[in-house]
Design a protein that fits this description.
Elements lengths: L19 H11 L3 H16 L3 H17 L9
């Protein structure tokens, strides 16, 4: 079972909240659902404010690749 929350959008944009209009504009621009747009924003916040989050995320991706394919998907960096 996944957790869920109720999100109340602001009437107008503020430093710590967005309006329904802004969320709609973002979803159209990103071509994502509202849920995926909100998840994307939360991931960006986690990367910016939680030390080690990005590295943990990379480790989870490697573990998922190993579980699915038996080996990690390695990207060559030039």
């Amino acid at each position: 079972m996944t957790a869920s929350i109720l999100l109340r959008l602001k009437i107008k944009d503020t430093p710590n909240g967005v309006s329904a209009e802004t969320l709609d504009r973002l979803t159209q621009h990103l071509e994502l659902s509202k849920t995926d747009t909100i998840h994307m924003a939360l991931v960006k916040l986690a990367e910016d404010y939680l030390p080690g989050y990005k590295q943990e995320q990379i480790q989870r991706e490697i573990q998922r690749d190993i579980a699915e394919n038996g080996y990690p998907q390695l990207a060559l960096v030039k």
